[in-house]
Amino acid sequence: MTQRRQQGGSFNLVIGVVMLVVAVMALWFVFKSVFALLAWLAPVLLIITLVLDRSVVFDYVKGMGNRLKNDTLMGVAQLAGTFFFFPLVSAFLFGKAMLLRKVGKIKGQMETEKEGEFAEYEELEDDEVLDLKDVEEVVQTRTPTTKPNNNYDDLFNE
């Protein structure tokens, strides 16, 4: 009985290894296809990123320059990685620009909700000013019955 279990176990091991190899090959094919598609779209994504928010690309290049100055070996590695994985880098920069744009819009909406919007107005020309000559003069409806008895009230009566 123990021999049958061992034979079944080795057969399952072979099937497991074959399935693992097939899964790795499928993932490799998918990665290669996505990378090829991104390679065609990379220049377009970079241009769109520059239009959306050019500071994202400039900050990335400036950071690469700073890394080259401060840590030359890692700077060269980043430069080589940017060159060889340009499609992935351009997709990353495009995603970052889109994210920053979305965050900026949400932040602007929150500020307008908090502070309110400015009301638009229209300036009137001199000839469009209202003519109020026809309006009757306002008659004073309240007459002082008693004289104020403190100095503060006297300031307004003079």
Give structural notes:
With 158 residues, the chain is mostly helical. The protein has a domain of 76 residues. The protein contains five helices and no strands. Helix 1 packs across helix 4 and helix 3 packs across helix 4. It starts with a helix and ends with a helix.
Task: Throw out a few tags for this protein.
single chain; 75% helix; 158 residues; mainly alpha
H and E string: HHHHH
- How many strands in all? 0
Helix content: over 70%
Mean pLDDT comes to: 82
> Radius of gyration in whole Å, from Cα?
38 Å
> Which spans have pLDDT < 50 for at least 5 consecutive residues?
none
- First-last Cα distance: 120 Å
Structure classification: mainly alpha
Report strand %. Answer: under 5%
- Helices, by number, come to 5
Major sheet summary line: none
Name the shape in a single word. elongated
Give a quick summary of the entry.
The chain has 158 residues and is mainly α. It has helices spanning 2-52, 54-70, 72-84, 86-115, 151-157.
Topology, element by element:
Elements: H1 2-52, H2 54-70, H3 72-84, H4 86-115, H5 151-157
